[in-house]
């Protein structure tokens, strides 16, 4: 079974509008972390936002917010006020366990290509 | 800027050859991870090093090996290259992030990657 599922191969959004990128995950570990990364065509993975399984509130970082629904095992990324520079591939990833300085493998989804239209 | 650098940026090898990819991170970043990203796919975890020892490995054969050095640099070595080894290889350095939830979590910051083409 896929640990991380991103069902949207591609998404389009108009500049200045909001967009939601979907991510569902599968784990039996009660302690886990969820990450979103942006990958422009240059290839570098850029960290956007983190949500811990025990965090009481949804994470927010500037224009990025994470709609975390633990019971549904979903962690959707919301980008508000889209900009042309947001056009990129977006990956959802999960780390199971406490992390810290221990083994911290990230499992990635297949990604969603976001295109922002002017 | 993540402070993680990788070299070379691009590399072309032929099947059966050996390759060494390099990564350098900032002082104090004791954990480094390597990922392979095939075209159109998400990255796949190869292995992780913590304080110069391998402490986790993904589903990759032994011809993928690594080293981590005291100066916070690391290497990924691949022997007997195969055509399917053509991919973007990403190195990630971990350090704690203060999350919006108020906890410290190890977060992986990636370098720009090395694109390997095996002919």
Largest sheet entry of chain B:
7 strands, mixed
State the secondary-structure class of chain B.
mainly beta
Oligomer: heterodimer
Largest sheet of chain A: 6 strands, mixed
Low-confidence stretches of chain A: none
Instruction: Please tally the helical runs of chain B, counting DSSP H or I stretches of 4 or more residues.
Output: 0
Structural class of chain A: mainly beta
**What integer value in Å does the Rg of chain B equal?**
14 Å
Shape of chain B: globular
Shape of chain A: globular
Q: What is the N-to-C succession of helices and strands of chain B?
A: EEEEEEEEEEE
Helix content of chain B: under 10%
Indicate the radius of gyration of chain A in whole angstroms. Answer: 14 Å
Number of helices of chain A: 0
| Strand proportion of chain A | over 45%
Distance between the termini of chain A: 38 Å
End-to-end C-alpha gap of chain B: 33 Å
Low-confidence stretches of chain B: none
Total strands of chain A: the figure is 12
Q: Strand content of the residues of chain B, in percent?
A: over 45%
Description of the structure:
The complex is a heterodimer of chains A (118) and B (119). Chain A is an all-beta fold and 118 residues long. Chain A has no helices and 12 strands. The model of chain A has no long low-confidence stretch (mean pLDDT 91). With 119 residues, chain B is an all-beta fold. In chain B, strands 2, 4, 5, 6, 9, 10 and 11 form a 7-stranded mixed sheet that branches. In chain B, strands 1-3-8-7 form a 4-stranded antiparallel sheet, with no helix packed on it. In chain B, a hairpin with a 4-residue loop joins strand 7 and strand 8.
